Amino acid sequence: MKTQAQFFSLFILFLLSMVSTSAAAQQWYKAELVVFERYSGANAEHWPEMRAINNGSLSPSANNNLIKPAGTGLLYGVVSRLNNASNYRVLYHQAWQQPIMSKGSARSIQINSSNGLVEGQIKLYRVNYLHADIDVWFKENGNLPVSSTGTATESQTYPNNPHLSQIRRIRSKNLIYFDHPRVAAILEIVPVATPASAVSKTPETYSLPEN
To answer: What does pTM read for this prediction?
Structure first.
């Protein structure tokens, strides 16, 4: 019985160590995202009613085993051309590093522009191939109504805003364009080495009950 208990304890420790290092074992990528406005003159009546915003659980500026901050530069030329064009305006430009895991394990990345006009998330995951799921609102016609208790109510009027929501199969080292008549996005990902700080240098220890 003692031998069986020891074997069981070692097996549990092995499983826990595998879970703790799963993110480090995945291929890491640098991702860079640009969200921009297109001056189309479309009427706000064409846009959906914004009743909720899906927010990401990870910030691009965070520094942990699931995400690392990164400098922009992959899409510098794209941003420059957009800024020099009269019918476009860059609203958001950010880069980060992350492992791309399975759809069930992947965490979404928060998207918030500095001017408060763009809010939402993007999730990068792998199902046989790499995929990107973007879900952002361009709040040009106002934000969600908030009651005195801090929650939106049915009696209030919700703004009609452009909503970019698409799932695309993607490839690394390729520009991925998310098209929309009012707010669009461009993404590029490139493989990078796993950050040293994302790999635990010392094994984690766990306390197991004694038999």
So the answer is: 0.81
